[in-house]
Design brief:
Blueprint: E1 10-14, E2 25-29, E3 42-45, E4 59-63, E5 71-75, E6 80-82, E7 85-91, E8 97-101, E9 103-108, E10 111-116, E11 123-124, E12 147-149
């Protein structure tokens, strides 16, 4: 299940990683940022049929603050960093590895949004990618298309 669902409202991720099935809504926010933690306190309301949510229970609240249209995403484990530059290993049409610099944007769950450096439909090496050198021949196993968030 994704970390949060699309649509409006707030989504509660419980301590075990499950997403609470009922969306919440914003109630109020403090006017000050806590200087020691850099956080701001926000209150939200969540429906609680069956009293599943209990006082003192831990969770994280996610909110959709930005919608990206046709964003390309790659698994986080496919992205490496070398001297501050993000890169991926692309499997070319000749089944050889091509090291490609990319610019990443935000992280969504376990995936990175790629701002530039890749095109939709390109094949990105994921497993064992760190041990592959530029130009190395590979026998790729396709596990799915490069994700496109709509």
């Amino acid at each position: 299940m994704p970390l949060w669902k699309t649509g409006s409202g707030l989504h509660l991720v419980l301590a075990d990683g499950d997403v609470y099935p009922h969306a919440g809504s914003f109630l109020a926010a403090d006017l000050q940022v806590d200087g020691t933690t850099g956080t701001i306190r926000i209150s939200a309301l969540f429906p609680n049929p069956g009293n599943v949510l209990r006082p003192g229970q831990y969770g994280r609240v996610r909110a959709n603050t930005k919608t990206l249209s046709s964003a390309l995403v790659v698994p986080q484990r496919a992205v490496t960093e070398l001297q501050g530059q993000a890169q991926v290993k692309v499997v070319g049409p000749d089944s050889r590895i091509q090291v490609r610099p990319i610019r990443v944007g935000i992280r969504v769950d376990k995936e990175w949004v790629v701002q530039n450096g890749l095109q939709a439909g390109e094949r990105v090496a994921v497993d064992a990618a760190s041990s592959l050198a530029d130009g190395a021949p590979v026998r790729p196993k396709v596990i799915g298309p490069l994700s496109e968030v709509k």
